[in-house]
Amino acid sequence: MTNISKEQNIERSGRIESALNIIKGTLSQYGYTELHLPIYEYYDLLQDTVFNFSDESIIRFIDRHTGKTLVLRPDFTPQVCRTVSGMENLPLPFRVCYKGTVFRSVEKDRGIKGEENQTGWEIFGESSIFGDIEIVLTANAALEKMGLKGFCFTFGDTLFLNRIKTLAGEKGDKILEAVSDRRTHDLKKLVSEINADNSLKDLIVKLPLAFGGRENIETLVKLSSFDKELSERIEFIKNLFNQLVSCGIDENILIFDAAESKGLDYYTGVHFEILHESYGSILGSGGRYDKLMSKFGKDLTACGAALNIDNLLHFPICESAAKEYDYLVIGKDNFKKAISLRKEGKSVIFVTDENQKENFIKNYTFKNII
Question: Do residues 52 and 136 share a domain?
Answer without folding.
Answer: yes
